[in-house]
Amino acid sequence: MTDDGRIKNDPYLLEVDGLDVTYHSQGRALAALQDVTITARPGEIIGIVGESGCGKSTLSAALLGLLPPNGEVTGGRALYQGRDLFTLGPEERRRLRGTEISMVFQDPLTSLNPTLTIGSQMLDVLRAHSPARADRAEARRRIVEMLERVGIPDPAARLRSYPHEFSGGQRQRIMIAMALLLEPALLIADEVTSALDVTLEAQILQLLCDLRDERGTTILFITHDLGVVAQICDRVVVMYAGRTVEEAEVTELFDRPLHPYTEALLASVPSRRRRGSELPTIPGRVPSLAELPEGCAFANRCAHAEPCCGEQRPRYVEVTGQRVRCHLYDPESGHANLRQPSAATTGRKEQP
Amino acid sequence: MTNDHDRPDAIVSVRGLRTHYVDRQWWFQRLRGRQPAAVRAVDGVDLDIRRGEVVCLVGESGSGKTTLGRAILRLAPATHGQIFFEGRDITGLRGAEFRRLRPKMQMIFQDPHGSLSPRLRVSDLLTEPYRIHDVPADQRYSVAELLEMVELSATLAEKYPHELSGGQARRIGIARALSLHPDFLVADEPTAGLDVSAAAKILSLMRSLRASHGLTYLVITHNLRIVDYLADRLAVMYLGRVAEIGPAEQVLDAPAHPYTRALLDSVSEPDPHRRQGRRRLLLPGEIPSPKNPPSGCSFHPRCRFAEAVCREVPPLAEVDSRHLASCHLSSKIRAAGTPV
Questions:
Q1: ipTM > 0.90?
Q2: Which of A197, A230, A274 sits opposite B270 (nearest CB)?
Q3: Which residue among A126, A210, A285, B86 has its CA within the 20 to 30 Å range from the CA of B240?
């Protein structure tokens, strides 16, 4: 793990501030992301959690400039090393992808070209982005080195293998190798372990942690698995219906979830403690983008909802080092049962 | 073997079950003077499931857990061995006799959308089993009753599968399985692909249905958190064989097989406090091909405890009451400390 003291004083590598993304569909404007705020310092692993449809993948597409034609950034900014990604021209964006910001997708089989060997696909990555390094022997050496680093046995010989000749875990390793080939400062990992067995998942998570420690790569780790988040992330951002609802250090989030949605999400993880009893579940379902309410998007499923929750959009307020978008914690919201969280009352254990 | 064999209360018993898939080109191999290779998906399993029990079957993909579950329901061939249902040998049962048995043992399929016909409405999907089995009207549940059983709104009856969410489609699959008053259900990865809260709802539903319908479950999963919540007994499979079996809490707390230990260590712990200071033993490599399993103990190439004795195939032997493991060094593994 990275030393907290150092990390806190570093400038942000990525600063997403009030990001809005709108999809245009059948004459309607659907707010896929609203007021999304995320910051990442160099070398941090930031978990982005939420259920399907919460906008996790739209967020990564927006950051990479890969939104579908009907998607549009309608507000906010995303500063990468101080430069706003959304004001860059297409050529600058393209240059940034791969060399500075890179992505690993969930399904390695559909992201790799089945008709090309692994070696030639990786060579393409190097060629597309760095003509200066086009020297074939040098490129090959770098590819072999990277494949070896991610744990592909006998990499030199396997350059001529096709994607289908690798197992699922190996393909995911190859995707990671390809994403790191140009040594990006920011890696977006979208559900990279969801399709893997626990044993392979543990290996891949270990690999990502090691790579972060070696190279200081910042990782945005998108997942719906809270266990995985606890395993590797330094900080966590919880998303719900296209909005960031809570942000906290990982131990804080698990000890002291503030947002009722985070609480419910943590409680619904099956475990022995819950054996023989019903698992707490969240009533209802995530509202579709077409039916988002005026106020808090979680209000219709929330046990603490009051009239103000349905009417006004909650602000993203800071509470003892965490940030939460909920009227319960905003003294100005007019919620009747304001919460005053303090570390002492929640039985939080001290960190060594 | 003294597990729970030949117990009168076993609803399902499996003896020496093997499912070997022979290469389609076996004759070609023969012509070339080679022994045709078989994929040994299930390679000699003994298992008893008692009435009312929840047995979980875990292992990595390729361990044979799904094939075993399907073979018990006769959805996959049994090339050797026997399957007993309520004391009766059903291994070779065919035709009308087999059809009479089918309603009692049902499967909840892994891919809910793939197992529902896209051209039928929910109401037709739910009554389809009745048409197939020609169930008299007085023994049928109504569509509304079935939907209520799985806690779905009656308004879904007129919908098509593509209009359902993953969790809803999964419930329709459960309702279809329940429609024929089964005694025994095999659930293949019942929460795969579902969000945390949808998965929690399915697990709670399975738990309450077990009580209300007197069900016995075989749950196939790779998620050990589900095992911790749901299972009475746990069987761990590796390369077509049972590596370890026993009461779930006992196996999880004091695993006697290094493979079980490694699986437990691989689980990402959602509680950061429990995680800290825990030594994780990560399993190197991947599961070998069941076409050509390693000699001796099939786990030895990945096992950090392996010794010379592991060249011999270990028997499935008792390590504690009702707790069996297939490892020469099981006492050493248990002494090496428990995970978490």
A1: no
A2: A230
A3: B86
